[in-house]
Write a structure and sequence with these properties.
single chain; 5-stranded mixed barrel; alpha+beta; 6-stranded mixed beta sheet; OB fold (Dihydrolipoamide Acetyltransferase, E2P)
């Protein structure tokens, strides 16, 4: 991995914040309200569940911990019980207060290589509201019972005080599971995760195992690397998906909620994907659904990785849909999940999750949702769409900037790459992925159609950090 200088990139990242008009420091009144809330949260409705030995699993260095889990076998011997604690942000926020208004202005936490712009002040998001180990914390505590095949048979959520006993990371968890060192309840993560993956297959859901391009820091420089997802990350994600599906079902049963929706891919998009599969020499029999094909792929093979990248086009168009009239919206299902689904497990970092928790808490208690929740529902989808778009812009701009900085001064050099996308209107233009450095960039300027999924020698024709641009041409 080649590094890009920290000092010049730091200045460029600061300029990026200004260019994108991103939120700056929290106003004094917001900080004051957050500090007071951190000292005296509303714990009047919380039961005591601090006897359960919860644990958290997050990337190393994370301090804004939204979720903690405790897994166990059901006492009747018929399956498993998932205890999933979600940070209870509402215990710290006064509806309509300065802190609440600022959260609606920010919508999501924004991540940079050198810092983050948090949704809530750090005194809450990295302190009093975070499920850090050793301290009692208010939470929305889900209890989800699964049968022996991993199907959910019962779910409810109540307010509770919880205490995490251990802060783990994915690599450490994977090592414990692989070596057999993990004891229950951690060892059950693999058992339950695999069962939930089988349930995903049965209902036709998909999880794209696309190697992620990420910014990494080493000493005084930044670089890029492709990071393959560990199995433990997938199993952990299945617990979150399980909770989001249970929450969506509760909302559907009560007729009030906000869902994460994704329309089923149109026939034209699937037909285009079939053409890509043919060009990439990926076997796709006509009677086999694309979800089954995706699960058969090996992302370490260049043609399979390129096809997985093409598959992401079917997952575009996800959004949030609110309803409060007893009728489910159309569409109501998230096509990739292949079921009803909502976001409810990351309230420290995403605005909508706080509202989803409140709706589910009310549903479990047999009560009407709080007025402040109902009043906010109509505007939430638009707020979340704008916040999600801004987060995506920040992520892409940061990667573009690091790519351009890494390759600055190397214009004219040749690189080995493979073609991961070809434009339909101009098959001589598309996208290439370099192995080293881990750069994904646009390619144009050739006369022949690009060979989708095949290796290609390319020449760097432009690399400008100021414009965050990287461009290649066939060598």
């Amino acid at each position: 991995m080649t590094g890009a200088a920290d000092c010049s990139l730091g200045a460029a990242l600061r300029a990026l914040r200004t260019e994108l008009d991103l939120p700056g420091a929290f106003p004094p009144e917001v900080l004051a309200e957050a500090a007071e809330a951190a000292r005296a949260p509303d714990l009047s409705a919380h039961e005591d569940a601090t006897d359960l030995p919860f644990l958290t699993i997050d990337p190393p260095g994370s301090t804004d911990l939204d979720q903690a889990m405790h897994l166990e076998r059901r006492r009747d011997g018929r399956g498993y019980r998932v205890h999933y604690a979600i940070a209870d942000v509402a215990a710290f926020l006064r509806p309509g207060g300065a802190l609440d208004a600022e959260a609606h202005r920010r919508v999501t936490t924004l991540y940079f290589p050198d810092d983050r712009i948090p949704l809530h002040p750090p005194v809450l998001s990295e302190g009093a509201a975070s499920l850090l180990p050793g301290e009692p914390r208010p939470a929305a505590l889900w209890r989800i019972d699964l049968d022996g095949d991993g199907r959910a048979v019962r779910a409810d959520v109540t307010r509770a005080l919880v205490r995490s006993r251990a802060k783990l990371d994915y690599a450490g968890v994977q090592q414990q599971l692989d070596t057999g060192a993990a004891e229950e309840p951690l060892a059950l993560l693999r058992d339950i995760g695999r069962l939930r993956e089988e349930q995903e297959v049965a209902r036709g859901g998909i999880s794209l195992n696309v190697p992620e391009q990420e910014i990494v820091q080493q000493g005084g420089s930044y670089g890029l690397a492709y990071r393959a997802t560990l199995p433990a990350e997938g199993w952990n994600a299945q617990i979150s998906l399980l909770t989001g599906m249970a929450a969506a079902r509760l909302m559907a049963d009560t007729g009030t909620g906000i869902l994460r929706t994704l329309p089923i891919a149109p026939d034209g998009a699937v037909a285009r994907l079939r053409r890509s599969a043919h060009a990439l020499h990926v076997d796709w029999p006509h009677h086999v659904p694309y979800a089954e094909v995706i699960r058969s792929l090996d992302p370490t093979r260049s043609n399979h990785a390129a096809f997985l990248q093409e598959c992401t086009t079917l997952l575009r168009g996800a959004g949030y849909t609110a309803f409060d009239d007893g009728e489910l919206p159309d569409p109501a299902v998230h096509a990739a999940v292949a079921d009803l689904y909502t976001h409810c497990t990351a309230p420290l970092r995403r605005l909508v999750d706080r509202y989803a928790s409140e709706l589910c808490l009310a549903a479990t208690a047999g009560k009407e949702p709080p007025g402040w929740v109902r009043e906010a529902l109509p505007a939430l989808p638009k707020e979340m769409a704008e916040g999600t778009r801004r987060a995506g812009t920040v992520e892409r701009a940061c990667v573009d900037l690091v790519e351009a900085a890494l390759l600055e001064g190397r214009v004219g050099e040749l690189f080995d790459a493979y073609v991961v996308d070809v434009q339909e209107r101009d098959p001589a233009a598309g996208t290439v992925q370099l192995r080293d450095p881990a750069v994904v960039g646009r390619i144009e300027g050739g006369t022949a159609p690009l060979p989708l999924g095949e290796r290609l020698r390319v020449r760097l024709t432009r690399a400008g950090p100021a414009s965050r641009t990287v461009l290649f041409a066939p060598a």
